[in-house]
What we know:
It is built from 10 helices and 4 strands. It has helices at about 5-10, 25-35, 55-70, 75-85, 85-90, 110-115, 120-130, 135-150, 165-175, 205; strands at about 45-50, 100-105, 155, 180-190.
Amino acid sequence: MSYLDFIYKRHSVRKFKNEEVPLGDIQEIITAATHAPSGKNLQNWHFVVVTNKEIIRGIADTIVKKAKAITASINDEALKTGFLSRIHHATLFTNAPVTILIFAGHYPITGLDILEAGGATREEIHRLAAASPGIQNIGAAVQTLMLAAANMGYGTCWMAGANFAGKEIADFIQFEKEGYHLVAITPLGIPEESELSSPARKPLEEIMTIL
């Protein structure tokens, strides 16, 4: 057994058993997520846990409604049809007993004010902002959440395809926290399939450089 086996238990799960997840398990998973590293220890994350099936379906309906609204005036039928045909991927969380919405708050980028005050070029400012340290915090938290869930026998799936409807989703669930916006969703539940697998990973020589 490898010390890292817990990492390889995580898979993208899209089908779940119709079994509730105990509140204590949910709280333990979210607590684990909050132990992820965050710059300046700002912990600029907020997790909205939804177990009410009516609300979960309402979130999915909100996504579909927004998708139809933003494509209504598009004349490029191929573009429109292609986008709408993928919406079901953004609502697959309805298959799970729990949906977790992850919101990100403001994060001050170190050095940004100095670059701006010093007359840096737009390219330099963009290069710094492109690293998105605030979102890196959220990524660490979501990954930790998923690893914790997998180690406890649950399945998750990292989803960001519904972010175009982030404001509408927040309005629907009446979530208000100044400066926070939706960045990811994950379903949570017991995987329907007992044997899980993940796509092959790129070889180390392609993605690692040693100096």
